[in-house]
Amino acid sequence: MTSPDRPAHPAPADTSLANRYGAKKRRLTPTAARAAAGVALAAGIGFLAWVSTSNSLSGVTFKDIGYSTTDSTLAEVDFQVTREPAKAVKCAVKALDSKFAVVGWKVVDIPPSVADGTPDGGRTVAQRVTVRTESASVSGVVDSCWIPGDGQ
Predict the structure, then answer these.
(1) Per-residue model confidence (pLDDT) at position 78
(2) Does residue 144 sit in helix, strand or coil?
(3) Which end of the chain, C or N, has fewer beta carbons within 10 A?
(4) Is 75 within 8 Å of 94 (Cβ atoms)?
(5) Alpha-carbon gap, residue 49 to 55, rounded angstroms
(6) Could you count the other beta carbons within 10 Å of the beta carbon of residue 82?
(7) Cα-atom radius of gyration of the chain, to the nearest Å?
(8) Which residues pair with 128 in a beta bridge?
(9) Mean pLDDT computed over 63-67
């Protein structure tokens, strides 16, 4: 008589986590972790310093003060420009309608001025510009200001 066939039992699987997922990762040494944190901190401080000074290095800043609509074909825009007194500046001013579409545009030349006894030394000048519009405007803003180069 023969004995009945018995199914072969597979070898039990190794259930240890190390065999299944690999060995534990090595952690950074405390010295390496401090060095990495120091490098990240220095990079963050450098980035913040660059962001805070990059705008002032351009030499020209502007601030919208207000606007008024004279009629459906004219808008007046009031703004301030801060720059070195000896520098001429150009500013692009635009008038917008209720859907924020540009209905008027003008590039304004601001001539150089002389340094005076004001607290900022004559760096800031106020401007009022009249912009012709093709339809009624509800807003007027400065789009950008720049120091013209030799080719402009």
Answers:
(1) 96
(2) strand
(3) N
(4) no
(5) 11
(6) 16
(7) 34
(8) 78
(9) 95
Q: Is 109 left (phi over 0), alpha (psi -120 to 50) or beta?
A: beta
Tell which wins on pLDDT, 6 or 33: 33
pLDDT-derived band at 137 (thresholds 50, 70, 90) equals: very high
Task: Dihedral sign for Cα 28, 33, 37, 39, please.
Answer: negative
Q: Residue 77: is it exposed, middle or buried by C-beta count within 10 angstroms (0-12/13-18/19+)?
A: buried
Pair type for strands 124-132 and 74-82: antiparallel
3-state secondary structure of 63: strand
Say which DSSP state 72 is in: T
pLDDT at 120 (0 to 100): 76
78 vs 113: CA distance, rounded Å = 19
37 against 121, higher pLDDT: 37
CA distances from 127 to 15, 91, 108 (A): 79, 10, 10
